[in-house]
């Protein structure tokens, strides 16, 4: 069975500052994919960034980057230069060979102007 | 590309009514689609995997007779909440991934808010 743990229910960041959202996971598979999804109040699921487990290099997408520690089974998301539009619920997710996504509980990020 | 459309976006019905939700892949064929349920400020819980041309695979604890899934074509999966009651009120989201070489990430519909009075 796969599990994804997001232990922080809420975080707050000052506009233009940097924030890191933590995520740990557990899986018995050797080949898997990790994701961060953003869900704004509209409840649309938006893919922020993804990481293939076989790649050692951390993924980056503009202001978003991850710190992927495979041995520690950790997958944190760093948001640089936070903007008001970054305020949303963020979900960490894992996908294994069966193509099913397992989501963490999510974290609500607020951005202070 | 890889757009998933979900309809309706919001439905309010009386208790006892059956409600059908559609999930369409607009620009790709999807042999597999997924249905999730989400309560307010909670995570997405996978309900079932919809397989084109065969029976859906339900997750443990999900009532097959309550949540009927039909995947009749490569671009359409439907979820029917039968004889809905207030406890079935929730946000339902579908997803699909386009075929292709290598891994393809899932694309989500915009969700359906179901309110049962």
Greatest chain-chain interface? A-B, 21 and 21 residues
What are the low-pLDDT stretches of chain A, counting only 5+ consecutive residues below 50? none
Order of helices and strands of chain B: EEEEEEEEEEE
Helix content of chain B: under 10%
Overall geometry of chain B = globular
Beta-strand content estimate of chain A = over 45%
In percent, how helical is the residue content of chain A?
Answer: under 10%
> What Rg of chain A is obtained from the alpha carbons, in whole angstroms?
13 Å
Count the beta strands of chain B: 11
Mean pLDDT over the residues of chain B: 92
What gap, in angstroms, lies between the N and C termini of chain A? Answer: 41 Å
Top keywords for this entry?
heterodimer, A: 113 residues, mainly beta, 6-stranded mixed sheet, 4-stranded antiparallel sheet, B: 117 residues, 7-stranded mixed sheet, 11 strands, 0% helix, 50% strand, globular
Characterization of the model:
The complex is a heterodimer of chains A (113) and B (117). Chain A has 113 residues and is mainly beta. Helix content of chain A is 0%, strand content 52%. In chain A, the strands form three sheets. In chain A, strands 2, 5, 6, 10, 11 and 12 form a six-stranded mixed β-sheet that branches. In chain A, strands 3-9-8-7 form a four-stranded antiparallel β-sheet, with no helix packed on it. In chain A, strand 8 (64-69) and strand 9 (74-79) form a beta hairpin. With 117 residues, chain B is mainly beta. Chain B is built from no helices and eleven strands. Chain B has strands at residues 4-7, 10-13, 19-25, 32-38, 44-51, 57-58, 67-73, 76-81, 90-96, 107-108, 112-116. In chain B, the strands form two sheets. In chain B, strands 2, 4, 5, 6, 9, 10 and 11 form a seven-stranded mixed β-sheet that branches. In chain B, a hairpin with a 5-residue loop joins strand 5 (44-51) and strand 6 (57-58).
